[in-house]
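Recall that a protein's primary structure is simply its ordered list of amino acids. Everything else, from secondary elements to tertiary packing, is in principle encoded there. The following example makes that idea concrete.
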Amino acid sequence: MQTLLLSSLISLSILVGGPVKKTENPIENKKGWISLFDGKTTKGWHSYGKTTAGEAWKVEDGSIHLDAGKGLSAGDIVTDESFDDFDLKLEWKISKNGNSGVIFFIQDDPKKYEQIWFTGPEMQVLDNDGHPDGKIIKHRAGNLYDLIEGKEGVVKAVGEWNQVEIISNKGKLDLMLNGVTVVSTTLGDDNWKKLVAGSKFKTKPDFGKIFSGHIGLQDHGNEVWFRDIKIKKL
């Protein structure tokens, strides 16, 4: 009887294709998407200048949460891996009056560059209504921070999740927020150089000149959450 039962269970397992493993999104993964966050740990990320993510970066309910303001070590976190042309997708939500950002093209060299924003442009994450930066053109949520003002009326209220997509492909950069293209520009052309020269980054000699690097999540001292972080190499 036990042998018959075991045989039946094995046959059933084969018939249905064995144990079903839950994946983030099998269809997208088949198309080349790579998960940058496993939903359980900060594996694959480290605080800039460190080897691991600071303890204030916690994993809660399937998201990376910056538990700021409690004296825990944090700092901006960056991916262990560097990327050239890419399509990056993620979701974020910000705390009331909060400020953060998604930064890319970061050169992971703290001995040469004190901060990640010395080399990496930023897609702003912000409570537009509560944070002072919300009153500054080019500093609002979805903007290419201090470089290009984004399309308005797209960001969701504090506490709600916002969907982001950043595509850098053969010199073209597109920033999307909640399915709407809010910024589109060309990297490295004369207009790009003019934008950098007119920004707060003009004193940083390598800012906006290197179009490959690490992805970063900013510690601006405010609580922020990120989830469903994935990337496709183009």
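The longest strand covers residues 224-233. The chain is about 10% helix and 35% strand.
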